[in-house]
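Consider the tokenized backbone below.
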């Protein structure tokens, strides 16, 4: 039997790998179709204050190969008053949008079941657009700021294949595996990883630039003196 923690991480990796596979195989046409499907679903999910969610693609590049890295989806909470108004919005990355897509569909299924229950004499549960809106996307983090396994902690090491993980997750994975959790490229130990250092403070960068400029000017000055002697 495997280590329980390692098994739990392996299960989580499987789920995350499926999410990455969904992103990898997603075509632009499928992406637009999912947005249209969500908007159609959300037309039936209007809360007691006459508000619903609307999804709209943005930052769509003209280069087909790069669209997945640049595209975002604007998730808007819209009041259906006259005239209609956008109360608030948030930008979702492609991964966050796909998570939201599955979440909204789950909400829709639950709302449909609630209506059927109410029709049979039960009590229909109140739907809150705000609760759904607040649950979509979560914190606006870049994929590069998240461990590819837990999607919570910041990555601390990068494997030779360039996938990044927090030290805890990759060490637990490495107990019984010698491949990258995502692409399955071989690596022997965590000694083969690159440590991701913290970005220097702006003051440090400015200080280093000033020092380098002084060195350059000093060197040029000494070179000029040598040329004239």
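A designed sequence for it:
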């Amino acid at each position: 039997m495997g280590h329980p923690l390692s098994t739990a991480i392996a299960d989580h990796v499987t789920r995350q790998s499926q999410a990455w596979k969904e992103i990898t195989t997603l075509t632009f046409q499928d992406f637009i179709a999912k947005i249209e499907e969500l908007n159609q679903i959300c037309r039936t999910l209007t809360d007691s204050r006459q508000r619903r969610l609307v999804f709209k693609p943005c930052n769509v590049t003209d280069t087909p190969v790069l669209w997945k890295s640049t595209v975002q989806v604007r998730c808007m909470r819209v009041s259906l008053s006259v005239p209609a108004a956008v109360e608030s919005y948030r930008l979702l990355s492609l991964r966050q949008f796909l998570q939201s897509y599955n979440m909204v569909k789950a909400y829709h299924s639950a709302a449909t079941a609630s209506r059927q229950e109410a029709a049979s004499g039960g009590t229909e549960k109140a739907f809150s657009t705000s609760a759904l809106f607040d649950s979509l996307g979560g914190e606006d983090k870049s994929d590069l700021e998240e461990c590819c396994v837990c999607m919570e902690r910041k990555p601390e090491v990068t494997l030779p294949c360039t996938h990044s993980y927090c030290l805890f997750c990759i060490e637990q994975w490495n107990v019984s595996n010698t491949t990258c959790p995502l692409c399955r490229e071989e690596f022997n130990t965590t000694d083969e990883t690159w440590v991701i250092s913290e970005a220097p403070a702006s003051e440090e960068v400015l200080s280093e630039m000033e020092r380098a400029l002084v060195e350059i000017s000093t060197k040029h000055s000494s070179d000029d003196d040598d040329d004239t002697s």
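Residues 203-229 form one domain.
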